[in-house]
Amino acid sequence: MAEEVDVVVVGSCMTDLVSQTPRLPKAGETIHGHKFFIGFGGKGANQCVQAARLGAKTAMVCKVGKDFFGSNYIQNFKDNAVCTAFVTQTAEAMTGAASIIVNDAGENAIVIVAGANMLLGEEELEQARSALAKAKVLLCQLEISSHISLQALRIARQSNVKTIFNPAPAIPDLHTDFYRESDIFCCNESEAELLTGTRVASVNDAGHAGLELLKRGCAAVIVTLGPQGCVVLQASNPNPKHIPTTKVTPVDTTGAGDSFMGALAFYMAHYPSMPLEEMSRRANLVAAVSVQSIGTQTSYPFKKDLAAELF
Ligand code: ATP
């Protein structure tokens, strides 16, 4: 029996297999790289780990393979104090993996095999139902079957649990209920662009796209804008509000969006009456720390690394 948790994430786990090479190989070609490393990734797990590192009691609902990568990932959750009561292992597919090649110019080629992530089903969601219904915040993305994400949002909503939905990776024909079941619908520029069919290249554009998304039924919309922070809109105050962030020298922005999402979930769970603009301002500052070092989860700050005024 899992103890009560603040933030439940229903989502993905991926093992990143990263090779650094002078250039990207051509079809049929074998080349030598200069470095290889394995990292923990997957949008769901990244967001969960960031929320946990800020001090939220978190639980992950996900599926990994009955393989070395899956067992290793479960240990990673434990190392980050994430509850693993709802992490299941299957022999039917391998743990999700992203094979990544990065060349010296920083360009990459990536193959993602979602594997076990796509086998997370209603049965596993049912097992997590009571923990989910007692949580403060549910966080979902689209790296698992979309009907499972939607079902999780519905269960949370029925239990008055706040829902944060991150439509990533974006799909053009997103079911309209995703908007209606989202207390916060949070996407980046390219996702906003794909979902609205309008160009999003500025703060102004993000405000327009945000308004269009808001009209589809969410209680609030956040569009993240990389070094420009984010734009926040609420059904109760649909005027787009730009929340800038501090200027930093980015080293590696991979996973910044997930750091932002995890931080947002933490603030929603711990400071439910804080204005959304302030939660977003603080999430900007957490994500800004993550872009200043290499890696995805390896770059995510812990509470102890951050200024006291963020808590
Ligand atoms: P990624 O795909 O790299 O994980 P994303 O495209 O989903 O990220 P972004 O909008 O690029 O999301 O970034 C999310 C948040 O991270 C931003 O709202 C901002 O707070 C922070 N951030 C990203 N890049 C920078 C940067 N260069 N400087 C400061 N903050 C940044």
UniProtKB/TrEMBL annotation:
Q: Which family does it belong to?
A: Belongs to the carbohydrate kinase PfkB family. Ribokinase subfamily. Belongs to the carbohydrate kinase pfkB family.
User: What are the positions of the active site?
Assistant: D258 (proton acceptor)
Subunit-structure text: Homodimer.
Alphabetical keyword list? ATP-binding, Carbohydrate metabolism, Cytoplasm, Kinase, Magnesium, Metal-binding, Nucleotide-binding, Nucleus, Potassium, Transferase
Recorded protein name is Ribokinase
Which source organism does the UniProt entry give? Answer: Ictalurus punctatus (Channel catfish)
Q: How is its activity regulated?
A: Activated by a monovalent cation that binds near, but not in, the active site. The most likely occupant of the site in vivo is potassium. Ion binding induces a conformational change that may alter substrate affinity.
Look up the record and name the cofactor or cofactors this protein needs: Mg(2+)
The pathway entry for this protein reads as: Carbohydrate metabolism; D-ribose degradation; D-ribose 5-phosphate from beta-D-ribopyranose: step 2/2
SUPFAM superfamilies the record matches: Ribokinase-like
What residues does the Carbohydrate kinase PfkB domain cover? 6-301
**NCBIfam families to which the protein is assigned, alphabetical:** D_ribokin_bact
